[in-house]
Write a structure and sequence with these properties.
This protein is of the alpha/beta class and 219 residues long. The chain has one domain: Rossmann fold, CATH 3.40.50.620. It contains eight helices and seven strands; from the N terminus they run βαβαβαβααβαββαα. Helix 2 packs antiparallel against helix 8 and helix 3 runs parallel beside helix 5.
């Protein structure tokens, strides 16, 4: 079956940090497809400062257009209410073997998500440590999440380490590079009319300017 990465988020806006991370995950795990899934109403994020869903979808589509394995799914925009990952994975199940890519902070918070045990049964979990922070699989918090989800353990995967274990009950810890970029900083730069160059694809910068997103009015 095809190996499919699933990467959800607000993408408010999408930037090179997201894209570099996704490209590395595709290589590390030898994925056939990688889906970016913009959330309509992220349940864990406030709506303030959120660009309209249609604009975030368009920016994401522009950003991934040149990558042969990247795709964008509008599945969370086509249903009403908050975007719950467990529902999204259920709807994508026919695409192949799903690999859900989440940050290490999100993994440690996973027990607060809707139906986390079912979520873990619908996709292989791929955890990416945040920039500047180590993720310790032996930490009590990580072990609690592992136990509550009924998973078997962790396996680190880095460049040159070879293929990860095929056991879906083992959480992959992907040692992928992430750039020190954040959506909040980029939105602030846009409001202040500062440069967005080298932080996101040019087509996304042009779209932000044309639509006046985040208070952007200049070139």
């Amino acid at each position: 079956m095809p190996r499919v990465g699933v990467f959800g988020g607000s993408f408010n806006p999408i930037h090179f940090g997201h894209l570099l991370l996704a490209d590395q995950i595709v290589e590390l795990l030898n994925l056939d497809r990688f889906l970016f899934v913009p959330a309509a109403e992220p349940p864990h994020k406030p709506a303030a400062g959120m660009a309209p869903a249609a604009d975030r979808l368009r920016m994401t589509t522009l950003a991934v257009a040149d990558h042969p394995r990247f795709e964008v799914s509008d599945i969370e925009l086509s249903r009403r209410g908050p975007s719950y990952t467990v529902d999204t994975l259920g709807a994508l199940a026919t695409l192949g073997t799903l690999h859900l890519v989440i940050g290490s902070d999100s993994f440690l918070d996973l027990l607060t998500w809707r139906d986390p045990r079912r979520l873990a049964s619908r996709a292989r979990l791929v955890v990416v440590p945040r920039t500047g922070r180590d993720f310790d699989p032996e930490d009590a918090g990580a072990q609690k999440v592992l136990s509550e989800l009924g998973l078997a353990g962790f396996a680190r995967v880095a460049e040159g380490s070879g293929a990860p274990t095929p056991d879906p009950a083992v959480v992959i810890v992907a040692e992928a590079m992430s750039l020190p970029l954040s959506g909040s900083d980029l939105r602030r730069r846009a409001r202040e009319g500062r440069s967005l160059a080298y932080r996101m694809p040019g087509a996304v910068v042009e779209y932000i300017n044309a639509r006046g997103l985040y208070g952007r009015t200049g070139a």
